[in-house]
Design goal:
Among the domains are: about 90 residues, UDP-n-acetylglucosamine1-carboxyvinyl-transferase, Chain; about 100 residues, RNA 3'-terminal phosphate cyclase, insert domain (Dihydrodipicolinate Reductase, domain 2, 2-Layer Sandwich); about 60 residues, no CATH class. It is built from 9 helices and 18 strands. The chain has a 4-stranded mixed β-sheet, covered by helices on one side. Strands 7-8-10-9 form a 4-stranded mixed β-sheet, with helices on one face. The radius of gyration is 20 Å and the shape is globular. The two termini are about 20 Å apart. One of its GO terms (molecular function) is ATP binding. It holds the Pfam family RTC.
Length: about 375
Amino acid sequence: MTAVRELDGSEAGGQFVRTALTLSVLENEPVRIEHIRGNRPNPGLAHQHLAVLETMAELCDAEVSGAELGAETVTFDPALEATAGATGWNGQDRGQLPGGEYAVDIGTAGSMTLLFDTLLPLTSVLDSQLSVTVTGGTDVKWSPPLDYFRHVKLPLLRRVGLTAACDVDRRGFYPDGGGRATLHLAPSSLGSIDLVERGPLEDARLYSVESASLADRDVAHRQAEGALERLALEERGLECSERREATVTSPSPGSAIVLRLDHGTGIAGFSALGERGTPAERVGEDAANAANRFLEAADEPASPVDRHLADQLLVFLALEGGQLRVPAVSDHVATSCALLEAFGAVVDVDDTPNETALVTVESTVDA
């Protein structure tokens, strides 16, 4: 029997738990996570973390203990059927994950995009198509809005071989959530990631959404106008090649905007959520301000991805090896790199103070 890998989450948040579960399945290795979300005011599993744990357990018929709200210690054993020919960091054959159709109800406005993020890397060990329909929050604080996931992250990952699509039935804003979307994954042969140079800005796209209850105030349109005025693309010799303004059904009033910037081989995304008392134009300006800071950063060489993608791509970087230049070694990046190393990955971070950092990870596979 494979020894249980002991992990300490006392200095990390929910991302640590999600990534640890993903790596456990990819490496077909049992884990015990202690002091979950230990540095948070309310430590232990919250609704969205519990939903991720239960979903991962159901997908691979894992043995689990601690699957309850507030739990600060969890054990998870995927025990997948081994597949000969692809060996992970731990030296044993990686597992094979069956596909199927599943439904998950987070039960709150907890983020479904964070759950989707946990599932995406599993394409590399799938043996048939997997579809997971999730009910919860689509556009909520502390997580990527749904349009960021669909129009920024997925397009970039498709470039390295990911086969995935996301269908949206209903949006779910805070506090009621109630959104519903389905992530479709197919077995994928992922290539290595090589995102080192930014290159010139080539394109910009905009996605602005409002709940039907806000349509009479033209919130989506005003968000878009505020963003484009502040972004001033014409001064950069560009136009917005895609502009989508949508009115959607949702149990709660809400709005969101996402800007996507394409440059060379990289994609970067910037977003903002509507808040009560904040003019819609200001929401759009907030997203554009983040995009402008990214474009005008003095760091050379510049990162080809935004700070959120920088962290989210590290697991994919490890699967087939490669290099990724990140805007900075944030706490999330540092935590993810340390977690990869805890599983036995060889990670190198070339970090110069006040500059971008180059992260290199060797492939997991000895095929």
